[in-house]
Give the backbone structure.
Amino acid sequence: MWPFRKKRSRQAETLAIIDEAIVFAADRWHFFSRSVAVTPDMDLRERIALFARSLEASLHSRHPELAAAPDEVIVLIVAKGVEQAGTAPRHEIERALGILLPP
């Protein structure tokens, strides 16, 4: 018998990859926050930037499709991951990065 399921659209596949990447970023943020020593004067923007640099290679190896993604998509994934991790309020992340996060 043949399958009756519809093939997922390209947009649905892309959103699924981004959602998975956000969950991965949230998990990695927890690890990063516990294992990387930062100076007390380092603000949230600097910590997120340091985290993003450390996340990039593992994110691209886990999701090769994101290697060609614009920087803005990676920033969104990182910021949403930090938000999802629950260690910083949404408004602080938005203020630190100068962006508005989607719901």
